[in-house]
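User: Assemble these into one structure.

Assistant: Restating your components, then the assembled model:
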Amino acid sequence: MTAPQDDRPVLQISGYSLAYETPEGNVAALEDVTLDIRRGETHALVGESGSGKSSLAWAILRYLPPNARETAGQILLSGEDLRDKTQAQMEALRGRRIAMVFQDPSAALNPAMRLGDQIAEVFMRHRGMNRDEAWAAGQAALEHTGILHPDRIMRRYPHEASGGEKQRVVIATAFACNPELIVFDEPTTALDILTAQQILDLFLRLRAESGVAALYISHDLGLVGRIADRVSVIHNGRIVEAGPVHEVFSAPRADYTRDLMAAVPRPEMRIAVPDPDPAPPLLRVSGISVSYGGPGRIARMLGSKGQPFYGARDVGFDIRPGELLGLVGASGSGKSTMAQVISGLRDFEGEVAFGDRRFRARRAFDRDYRRAVQIVFQHPDASLNPRQTIGGILSRPLRLYGLVPRAQVPARVRELLETVLLPPEFAARYPHELSGGQKQRVAIARAFAAEPKLVICDEITAALDVSVQAAVARLLTGLQRRSGAACLFITHDLNLIRQLAHRIAVMQKGRLVDDFDVAEAESPARHPYTRALLEAVPLPAELQGVPAP
Amino acid sequence: MREILRNPAGLVGSVLLVIVLAAAVLGPFVAPYDPQQFHAASRLQGPSAAFWLGTDQYGRDLLSRLLNGAPATVLFGLGATALGVGAGSIIGVVAGVAGGRVDSVIMRVLDGLLAMPELLFTLLIVTFLGGGTSQAMLAVAVTFTPGMARIARSAVLSVRTRDYVQAAIARGESRAWIVGREVLPNALGPIIVEATIRVSFAIMIGATLGFLGLGAQPPSTEWGLMVAEARQFMFRNPWCVAVPGVAIAVTAMGFNLFGDALRDAFDPRRRRI
C-alpha cells in the first residue's frame, strides 16, 4: 500500500445523526457523531445501555430498522460513502470489507449448520472458492485462532462447541477475508472471565498480524484500557469525549467520563459493613448435591445407563450473622444452583442448617425459614410481576407474613421505598414505567420488607450499567448495616466482590474449590483457579494510574 | 383499545365487528318483514326498493332473514368459543401448573385428539350427538378444546419459570395465589387473542355444519343453512347465496382482524411505554 492511502482513515464518520420514528415523534438516537479509525487502530466506543452505541454499529453495517431516519452526516469507508451504497453493493461489502463480531456467539451462529460450513461460506461468497478450497481455507483460519483440533471443530454443530470455541469461529469468520474494518460489539460480555481473557489475547494477536481497523464497542472501562488506542465516550447519542485512551483515562475532561471512571469497582475501596463479631454460623450448608437429567425409574428399568449431570456436588460453606459471603465462579459453575437450593427453589441432597434448625429436603422448608431467607434475582425486568403495581409488590411480604397491621401497610410501603431511595409516589406505578436500576431497588426493598436474616443476591448487579451497579451495591450494604442481615452475594465481578465481601467462596464445575477471607485474596496459598480468575480481571489500576476520586 | 384502533387492520376489524354485533342485537327488531313470510309473487328476485337484498325461493325477504339469523349465528360462534376456550384453558393450566406426569398424560391424550382434522372431528361428534344447534355448538367446543389447552399450557409454561413466580415460591406463597395472581394474569393475553381468532373459525364451522344439514334445521335463519337451502337456486338468483355467504365472510374477517390487532397490542415488543 502507498503512503497517502495509509493516511486516509479506514472509517470516517462525520456529523452523523440518526433518529427513530415512533408514533410519539422522532427519538434521536445519535447526534452529530464524528469519529475516525485508521489502519491498525482500535477505537473503543464506551457507553451505557441506550447510549446509541449499537445504533452506530448498525448504521455502519447499513442494517437499520425501517423506522430509522438518518438526518445528517456521512459514513465513509476508505473514502466511499456507505450511505450511497445499494442493498446489493452492501451485501457484497459485508464480510469482505466490513465484518462484525457479535456479543453472543451462540446467537450469531446458525444452529442448523456445521461450524465449518459457516466459515467456508464466507470464502465461497467473497473469494469465489469452491467448497473444498473454502473448507481448507476455513480450517486454516480456525487453526490460526489457536483452537485445538480445528478439523474436529469444523465438523461440529454450534451446540456441540463451547462458548469460547464458538466465539473463535465467529472471529475467524470475521477475519477470513482480511476486511478493512471489523466492528466488535461486546465480544466477551457473554463469556466467562477466563475464556474472555483468551478471546482478548486472540483479538490482540490477530489485530497485530492483519493491521485491521477495529471499532470496539464496550461498557467495560478496564477492558478498553487494555486493548484500545483511542476511545470515544458516548452518552445519550452524543460523543462527550474522545481521544487517546491514556489521555482520556488519566485526565477525563467530561463530567460523564469522570462519573463512569468513579463507578468502576476498585478492590481497595471497601464499601462493606464492618466485620461481624465471631458468632456461630447463621446458615451452614453441607454436602449439598444437585443433579439433573438422571434416568427416570422406567428408563432405568429399560436399561438406560445415562449419567446425571451434577449442578452442584458436595458443596459446603457457612455464613455468619451480619456477614457478606461472596460466591464467585464462571457461568455454569453452580453458583445460582446454590442460591436456588438455599431459597428453596430446587430439590437437593445434603443438609441446610439454619440457626438451630436442620433441613434435609426442599419440602421441609416452612414459612418461617422462607421469611428469614429472601432472594433477589439477576434480571429486575423478570423478577417483578408486570401486572402488579410497585405498591402491590412491596406490600405482599408484609401481608403474607403479617409483619405490620393491615392499616399500616401503605405507610410501611412508602417507608420501604424511601429506604431504597425511591420516591413514595412510585407505589402507584407499574414495573415497566421504571428503569432497570429502579426496578432492582424495588426487588431489594421487597427482600428486605420481610425483615430477613439472610438475603441471597444472585448476580443482582450483572444486568445493570456500571454507574447504577455501584449505587445498588452501596444501597445493599447500607441496608445490611441497618438491618443486620447476612448476605450471600453471587457474582462473577471479582473487583466488586472484593469491595463488598468479608469472605469469598469460589466454585468451579459444581464444586467448591476455595473459601477465604477477602484480605487473603492475593495470598500465594490460593487455589490455582482462584488465582487465574483474579489475574484475568483487568484491575482499575490499569486505567493508566487514574487517581481514585 | 386505542392501540388496536391505530392499527389499520384493527380499525377495519373493529368496524366490521361493530356492524355485525349491532345486527345481532338490533337485527330482529329492525327487519322490515317477518323472516318466514312468503311473498309468492316475488320469488328469487334481485335487490329492489321493496326487498333491498332480494328474495329467496319462497319469496322470503333476504335482508329480514339475514338480520334475524345474525343473533343465532354470532351467538353460535361466541358460545362455542367460550365453551371450548373455557374447557381448554382449564385443562391447559392444570397441565402446565402440575407439570411432570400429569402434564405428560394430559398432553398425550390431547395430541391424539389433535391428530384428527378439525371438521372431521366435529362431524364425528355431531353424528354421535345428533343434529341441531346446541349439539353443533357442543361439537365445535369439543373440537376447540385440545388446541386451546395446548396454547394455555404453553402460555403458563412460559410464565411459570419467570423470576417473579420463582420469587413467589421462595416467599412461601400458596399454590392458589401463585396460579391466580402471578401466573394467570400474565398468561391470559395469548389465550384471549387466540379466542377472538377462533370465533371466526367457530362461525365458519357452524355454517359448514348448517350447510351439511347437521347444524341448525329449517326453517331456521342461521346463515350457513341459508346458503345450503338456496344452493339449488344459485343460478336463478345468485343473491340468495351471496348475501348470507358475504355476511359469514364479513363476520369471520371482523373477528380475525380484531384478533390479529389484539395480538399485536398484547405483544410487549410492539407495545410502547
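The longest helix of chain B spans residues 62-98.
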